[in-house]
Structures are given as structure tokens and as C-alpha cells.
Design brief:
By secondary structure, the chain is of the alpha+beta class. It folds into 4 domains: about 5-165, Beta-Lactamase (2-Layer Sandwich); about 260-290 and about 300-360, Beta-Lactamase (2-Layer Sandwich); about 365-435, Helix Hairpins (Orthogonal Bundle); about 445-600, Histidine kinase-like ATPase, C-terminal domain (Heat Shock Protein 90, 2-Layer Sandwich). Helix content is about 50%, strand content about 20%. It has 14 helices and 17 strands. The strands form 3 sheets. Strands 11, 12, 13, 14, 15, 16 and 17 form a 7-stranded mixed β-sheet that branches. Helix 5 (about 160-210) packs parallel to helix 6 (about 220-255), helix 10 (about 405-435) crosses helix 14 and helix 13 runs antiparallel to helix 14 (about 565-575).
Length: about 600
């Protein structure tokens, strides 16, 4: 039942009225019983005394017994009692009809007390009538005070019982009427009390669910004051919760926008807060707009101590929890993801209630350090071979070991070739230094891209022929002169770099295709080869400085991994785009595009 308090109040009122009515009824009935008995006894005593004086002539013989019995009959009917008159010797002089022989059961002791001048009154079982009765005995005295006889009156209690039963019926009726009235009053009072309390309860439930805008109507009594106080509390709680929500939102937004990952776990290692950067570093599912993980089977945030992927992180958390001191460690969370983790315990006195971890992504720093080491190794590797050749052949020339002019000429050409290779390496390094300073100088002008591509295709025919590679050109827009606005020397550098790589990594018997196309407002140049191709996972990395796909190649097979990085910067600065398409084992397609500014027929 919804209105439980109303039912309780109504039941309480009815029980109280019933108990009060019952107690009052019992008290009234008991008092009425005592009063009726006492009144009946006084009446019998008074009538007995009066009757004795009325029939005094019966004792002197002046009144016939018939007259006396008539008087006794009338008096007995009035009193609903049986009457016996006896003389001083104990002889029955008169009695009311119906007693017959039962009068003989009159106690001699009672007769003796009355004849002695005492009036006796007794209530209880009477052997004469064999019922509960009031027994009264009064002496009959002459005018001189002499006791001449006795009058005995025996009144059954049935009349008094009928009166008492009538009183009980009145009490029951009054109780029934009182219950009905009490029920109506109790319903009204319980509704007037319980309705605002129920509204307060409903409002409290709504507040517990987060609705602090709810208000309760109130009246001018104590419950109304409670409702008014509730409304004030709801208003102030709403303001406080809203202020806390805003502060929490600001804090979460600030933490979410940090470039460092932030993770907070409770004392059971369950995630309390995690920003998107930490999710990214840990490889967790991102959060959707509804604020939940995209993986519906996730069942909430994972317990870090059950994540087998992060044993070092679990160890750091356990160390902080055990010693309750801040710790830092460098941890590899994923492949090629290295972070510096600062873990700090959240303490309430000596009680640990959480741990906050801040992740600094140092992958780029470690990659840079690795690239620096690789650069030193590559430079050492690339420089050792030409320097060895230059030194060995120079020493041979100086020592006079080589006497033939043709051989000397070959040695000098080898020295010159290796010197040019060293110069190209130095030039690439200087180029990267200029790029780092943002000082890439472009001498832009309008030129025909088709003429440049055709010229380079012809120049590379002998180089490709030496490696037994077929070099072909495809000009689908040969009828157009594709005019671009860029630095022709730099664009030539880009195309040369792509052709060098294609010829270098295409095996003998393979094919290299240089293709020029027109696409809407742009001209595209693509260099296709049939070499070993580039693994998909390494394709985004080939544009980085010092990166090499084939790290095991020997000296003389290439530079130090700067050509594609320089090419990308040249194309980007010229307003174009550069890309690669490749499948491992199926060759590669390197291409770039430049905007067309005008066309000539």
C-alpha cells in the first residue's frame, strides 16, 4: 500500500478510541453496577422498614392475613421481590405467592440477627430462590421500640442484570458510533499529515536521483516548516552540486586536454579516472560521446592488475601501494611506445585510497636517440667504404705501385667518384640542417613539367641499362605542356631521388616506369618499380629522416636515409603532395603532385 503512514495513523486513532471507549465503558458499567446494587439494597431496606410498619396490625391481630398477603403481593410485584413476614417466635404470618415450602430454607442465624434488632443485607446466591439475589432482613418494631417480628425481602438480580445489559448495549452502540466518527476524523487527519510527508519522500527520492529543482508545497504548520526547510536544502544542494559539477568538469577537461596521460586507480587497482592520452598509450578503447568505452563487452574499465600486457606498470603500482611513496619508472607499454611514469599515492592520513599516475610519452625522444645512434652507425658505415677506397688508391698512387697510365686513370676516377659520393652525403646533411632552420630556399618560376620529366627519363636510360633494367616513360597528357610554378632544380632533385631509389632496388630484368598525368588542376608524377616493395607498417616511416627500410644493405647501396625526407619537404613547400603505394613483394609506386597554373597548346 502506497500510503502506509496514513494507514498507520488511521489504525492508531481507531485503536486509541476503541481502548478509551472500552475503558470508559468498563468503568461506567462497573460504577453503574455498584450504584444499582447499592440503590436496590437501600430501596429494599427502606421498603422492608415501611412494610413492617404497614402490616404492624398483622402482629396484633388487627389486620387479617389475606389483607397482608395482598399488600405483600402488590409490593413484591413493584419491587420484583419475594417477601416473608414472621413473628418473634419464628412463625410465618404472610408471604408473597410462589414461595410455598421454600421459605423453610430461611436461615435461623439470619432470623436470630434480625429479631435481635439488626438489619442484614447480603448479595449472592440465595438458597430460597436458588438464584443470585439480594437478601434483606429488617426488624418490625412497635411504637414503644419493642421488636415484634421480622420482614425478609429477596430480590433476584435479574432486573439489575437487565439494566446492566442495557448499559452494555448503550456502551457498544456509543463505541460503534465513536469508531465511525473516529474513522472519518482519522482518515482526514492521517491524509492531512501523511500527504505532505509522502510528497517530501517523493521529493527526497527525486533528489537522490539528481533532480535538485524539485520543490514541495507547504502550509503554515510544523510540516509546512519542514517542507520549506526541505525546499531551501534542495536549492542549496543544487547550487553546491552544480558548482562541484562545474569544477569537476573543468578539472576533467584540463586533465583530458593534457599532452600527458593521467590515470587514477583506487586501493583495489580499479580505474577511477583516465584521460584520452592515457587510453591511447595503454591501447584501451576510446570513449564515445555517451561517456562509455566503445567495446560493449568490456563491462566497464579493466582492473590494471589483471591486464597481462602491463607487468611493469602493475609492479610500479604495487610498489607505490606497499611503500606509500612516490615512484618513477620508464616503461614500454606497447610496441614502440615508451613512457616515463610518475606514480603518487593518494593518502588520507595513513590510509591509501588511490594512486595517480602521470604518463610522459618519451617515444619520440627514444626514437630520436635511436635515430641518432643509427645515424652515427650509418655515417660510419657509409663513410668507411669511400674513405677506405680513397685512402688505399691514393697511397698506391703515391707509393708508385701503379705505373700504367690507364690504371692510374682508373684509380683517379674511382677517387673522384667516391669524393662525389661524400660530397652528396655532406650536401644532404646540410640540406636537412637548412630544413630544421626553416631556411629551405626555393627559386620558384613557371616551367614545363613534361619537359623536365622527359629529360630525366632520357638521362637515366644508360644507368638503367647498366643494371639491365627496362626504363619506360608514359605521358598520357603528351599533347599538353603542363606548366607549374615551382623551383625546377628542386623538383628535378625530387624526381632524381625517386628514380635513384627505383633503379637501385629493382633487380636485373625488372622494369621502372615514370608516368606523367594530368588530374583536374594538378599534374602528377609517379615512378613505379618492380622491386621488393615496402612493408605496410613501414610505409608511414619512410618519410622520416635517417629511416631505412633495408637496414642490412651494404655500403654503396644508398645514402643515410635523408632523400625522401628532403623530397617531402620540397613538394610540401611547392604546394603539392607526395605519397607511396606498395605491397611487399610487388614493387612500389612513389608519386607527387603539383598544381597547374596555365597550359600552352
Amino acid at each position: 500500500m502506497k500510503n502506509k503512514i496514513g494507514v498507520k495513523l488511521t489504525a492508531s486513532y481507531i485503536v486509541i478510541i476503541l481502548v478509551a471507549t472500552l475503558i470508559l465503558g468498563l468503568f461506567f458499567a462497573a460504577a453503574a453496577r455498584r450504584f444499582l446494587f447499592a440503590e436496590k439494597q437501600r430501596e429494599l431496606v427502606r421498603k422492608g422498614q415501611q412494610l413492617g410498619q404497614t402490616v404492624i396490625g398483622l402482629f396484633t391481630g388487627e389486620m387479617p392475613p389475606e389483607t397482608a398477603e395482598k399488600i405483600l403481593e402488590v409490593t413484591g410485584n413493584y419491587l420484583e421481590a419475594r417477601i416473608i413476614i414472621m413473628d418473634a417466635s419464628g412463625r410465618r404470618l404472610a408471604m408473597t405467592p410462589g414461595l410455598g415450602w421454600r421459605w423453610a430454607r430461611l436461615s435461623r442465624a439470619d432470623f436470630s440477627q434480625v429479631i435481635s434488632g439488626r438489619t442484614i443485607v447480603r448479595r449472592g446466591y440465595n438458597p430460597i430462590l436458588e438464584v443470585e439475589a439480594i437478601f434483606v432482613g429488617t426488624p418490625v418494631k412497635t411504637q414503644t421500640g419493642q421488636i415484634t417480628g421480622a420482614v425478609f425481602l429477596i430480590a433476584p438480580l435479574t432486573i439489575v442484570g437487565r439494566v446492566i445489559n442495557g448499559l452494555w448495549q448503550l456502551v457498544a452502540l456509543a463505541s460503534l458510533i465513536g469508531i465511525v466518527i473516529a474513522l472519518l476524523v482519522a482518515l482526514y487527519l492521517s491524509q492531512s499529515i501523511s500527504t505532505p510527508i509522502i510528497k517530501l519522500k517523493e521529493a527526497a527520492v527525486a533528489m537522490a536521483e539528481g533532480n535538485f529543482r524539485i520543490r514541495v508545497g507547504h502550509r503554515s504548520d510544523e510540516i509546512g516548516e519542514l517542507a520549506e526547510a526541505f525546499n531551501v536544502m534542495s536549492h542549496r544542494l543544487g547550487q553546491s552540486i552544480e558548482a562541484l559539477r562545474r569544477e569537476k568538469h573543468k578539472s576533467e577537461r584540463m586533465l583530458a586536454e593534457l599532452s600527458e596521460g593521467v590515470l587514477a586507480v583506487d586501493e583495489k587497482r580499479r580505474i577511477m579516472f583516465i584521460n584520452e592520452k592515457a587510453r591511447e598509450l595503454l591501447g584501451l578503447k576510446p570513449v564515445t560521446a555517451t561517456g562509455s568505452a566503445q567495446d560493449p563487452a568490456a563491462g566497464g574499465e579493466p582492473d590494471l592488475l589483471t591486464m597481462e600486457s602491463f607487468p611493469d606498470l602493475r609492479g610500479l603500482i604495487n610498489t607505490v601501494a606497499e611503500h606509500k611513496t612516490s615512484e618513477s619508472a620508464e616503461i614500454n607499454l606497447q610496441e614502440k611506445v615508451t613512457v616515463l611514469v610518475h606514480a603518487t599515492p593518494l593518502l588520507d592520513g595513513d590510509l591509501l585510497w588511490g594512486i595517480i599516475l602521470v604518463f610522459q610519452d618519451i617515444s619520440a625522444l627514444r626514437n630520436l636517440e635511436m635515430m641518432r645512434k643509427q645515424l652515427i652507425a650509418d655515417l660510419s658505415h657509409e663513410l668507411r667504404a669511400p674513405l677506405t677506397i680513397i685512402r688505399g688508391q691514393t697511397e698506391a698512387l703515391l707509393d708508385g705501385v701503379i705505373e700504367e697510365e690507364a690504371t692510374k686513370q682508373t684509380y683517379l676516377l674511382n677517387i673522384l667518384e667516391e669524393t662525389l659520393r661524400l660530397s652528396k652525403m655532406v650536401r644532404d646533411l646540410l640540406e636537412i640542417a637548412h630544413l630544421d632552420r626553416g631556411a629551405l630556399a626555393l627559386q620558384k618560376q613557371d616551367f614545363c613539367l613534361k619537359s623536365l620529366v622527359a629529360s630525366l627519363s632520357e638521362k637515366y636510360q644508360p644507368i638503367a641499362g647498366e643494371k639491365k633494367i627496362k626504363l619506360a616513360a608514359d605521358f598520357q597528357t603528351a599533347q599538353d605542356h603542363l606548366i607549374v610554378h615551382a623551383d625546377p632544380a628542386r623538383i628535378e632533385q625530387v624526381i632524381r631521388n625517386l628514380l635513384d631509389n627505383a633503379v637501385r632496388f629493382t633487380p636485373p630484368g625488372g622494369q621502372v616506369l615514370i608516368r606523367l598525368q594530368k588530374q583536374e588542376n594538378a599534374a602528377t608524377v609517379e615512378v613505379c618499380d618492380t622491386g621488393p616493395g615496402i612493408p605496410k607498417e613501414e610505409q608511414p616511416l619512410i618519410w622520416e629522416r635517417f629511416y631505412k627500410v633495408n637496414k642490412a644493405r651494404t655500403a654503396g647501396e644508398g645514402g643515410v636515409g635523408l632523400g625522401l625526407a628532403i623530397a617531402k619537404e620540397i613538394v610540401r613547400s611547392s604546394g603539392g603532395q607526395i605519397w607511396v603505394k606498395s605491397e611487399e613483394g610487388k614493387g612500389a609506386i612513389f608519386g607527387f603532385s603539383l598544381p597547374i597554373i596555365k597550359q600552352k597548346a
